[in-house]
């Protein structure tokens, strides 16, 4: 088989896989959709050059669809890492002209994000209260999974530390609340919030004054499939729209 024949065969397999994934998603309503959507996202990236979404599991594609491909929106990207790898907001910034704030406490990743993103970047961690806290920086291994020591999900941290590549250090970082970041950054009502803080999502949301901010869409990492996150969101006027990888995507219900 020639290289060209192999490429044709691989492409045919990917096309068939994409059809199968779309078919499975039509009937699947559980959290299994998250992994299926991630796979569909990856396959589509391979097959369709015009598919420019850059998130890990299609979160940005879902947000873009929910916002009717709106231009000029606003975002808050919490745990934005280097601003590029698996970013939920890069596409919106580059191709829809959105503006916003990216939050990343790890110095090396903050510097990378600041160098490549147009949006404002803040070197802080999100927590229920503003102040200072210990932060576990994963230096080798699962480097995208750094988080506050006080709220890091225990099961997830064990998985991270079991990686043979793992190396970490504990930093003292400044912490700020979600609400404080929104207000001081001039974004009291962002269209979209991406919240990925390795187990700290629940405490951050419990401390968030939903009534004071009009956020239209949230993508919230929920690695442990916690029932508390959907409970918080439902009680504050949001409906679960989709699962994308480990994330739950919520949209604010219309008033009335």
UniProtKB/TrEMBL annotation:
<keyword id="KW-0489">Methyltransferase</keyword>
<dbReference type="InterPro" id="IPR029063">
    <property type="entry name" value="SAM-dependent_MTases_sf"/>
</dbReference>
<dbReference type="InterPro" id="IPR053202">
    <property type="entry name" value="EGF_Rcpt_Signaling_Reg"/>
</dbReference>
<dbReference type="GO" id="GO:0008168">
    <property type="term" value="F:methyltransferase activity"/>
</dbReference>
<dbReference type="GO" id="GO:0032259">
    <property type="term" value="P:methylation"/>
</dbReference>
<keyword id="KW-0808">Transferase</keyword>
<dbReference type="InterPro" id="IPR006342">
    <property type="entry name" value="FkbM_mtfrase"/>
</dbReference>
<protein>
    <submittedName>
        <fullName>FkbM family methyltransferase</fullName>
    </submittedName>
</protein>
<dbReference type="GO" id="GO:0016197">
    <property type="term" value="P:endosomal transport"/>
</dbReference>
<dbReference type="Pfam" id="PF05050">
    <property type="entry name" value="Methyltransf_21"/>
</dbReference>
<dbReference type="GO" id="GO:0005737">
    <property type="term" value="C:cytoplasm"/>
</dbReference>
<dbReference type="GO" id="GO:0005886">
    <property type="term" value="C:plasma membrane"/>
</dbReference>
<feature type="domain" description="Methyltransferase FkbM">
    <location>
        <begin position="77"/>
        <end position="240"/>
    </location>
</feature>
<dbReference type="GO" id="GO:0006888">
    <property type="term" value="P:endoplasmic reticulum to Golgi vesicle-mediated transport"/>
</dbReference>
